[in-house]
User: Fold this.
Amino acid sequence: MASRYAAEEERQAILVYLEQTGGELEGVSLELLGKGRQLADQAGWSLGGLILGHGVGDLARQAIEHGADEVWLADHPLLADFTVEASTRVTFAALMEGRPSVFLAGATPDGRDLAGRLAVRLRTGLNADCTDLRLDPQRGVLTSEVTGFGGGVLALLEMPSHRPQMATVRPGVFPPADPDPKRNGKVIELPVDLTAEMIRTRVVERVVGRSVDLTQATVLVCGGRGVAGDFGMLEELARLLGGEVGATRPPVDERQVERERQVGQTGVVCRPKVAFACGISGAFHFVVGIQNAGTVVAINTDPEAPIFEFSDYCVVGDASRIVPALVQALQEEGEHA
Ligand SMILES: Cc1cc2nc3c(=O)[nH]c(=O)nc-3n(C[C@H](O)[C@H](O)[C@H](O)COP(=O)(O)OP(=O)(O)OC[C@H]3O[C@@H](n4cnc5c(N)ncnc54)[C@H](O)[C@@H]3O)c2cc1C
Assistant:
């Protein structure tokens, strides 16, 4: 089935859905602006940002400083809280008007909700949960990298004839763009055609359930099955280093650690400066969550453990002895400082 607009009708532009909550841009939106800027520069295209909300005009400046050439702003009281009906309607109209070749959104709960509906309405494809993006400047085709078949393979997906080429990307995959206060850009105010009857969702209360956001941690101390449930020592190490505790899936499944601390393909993808992997074998599903870490330190009793292939510092030994020794050394250093 042909998409609502064809490749021949596209504008050579990338549009990023700039998700905001309570008047603040989500981290993944700034990350997508950074990646979008890089791809647009390679192809000589323009980069736009789409902001939906009410009273959020100030965010346009921030988006321009982070790389957008133009910001499309839809401001309306019915966009104050995210509802998928309103956001789909307004974004669909914006895309049909602007006809960008590429449309990117964060793989957040709201971004996933929106992108799925939009793809059906636009009769185009959606590459969900991408771990990398490339753009062929000659063909104007986006290549999206996703993990497939339970993480066993990396698949490269393209949609040469459908537009827009849509992809969602998980938070933490790309570094955020550095702001440049001197950048100039254009703000385009979009007409918004919304009435309360069009929106079936009613926002009754907003409850933020996440007590920890591992994507923001600069130091991550991860434990696996090999720490045998002793996450207390990892918490102490994380506290001394100003970091957070993460885990592989088995300790999470065994309820030794909260689900929001699971790192990896079905958990959180992180970008810490330093990641410790204690008692972790190094399955691909886990490694994908720390592959962007600056430095990886692994502690494992098995010298053949696959985690050592991804590590900068490899400690062959028992985590239940090495972690307390590290904690003690850091405490002593603190006392002498
Ligand atoms: C579709 C799918 C999605 C998945 N998503 C995720 C995900 O998001 N995140 C994730 O983590 N997993 C995920 N998994 C599971 C993943 O495949 C692995 O099974 C899991 O990561 C293994 O966890 P582990 O390293 O803690 O345990 P194990 O593989 O059992 O490794 C334990 C390690 O501890 C070492 N060890 C034992 N005792 C000690 C000791 N005293 N000191 C030091 N080292 C010791 C052992 O040598 C071993 O290497 C997923 C699986 C599937 C199929």
User: Anything to note?
Assistant: The chain is about 25% helix and 30% strand. The mean pLDDT is 94. The first strand starts at residue 5 and ends at 6.
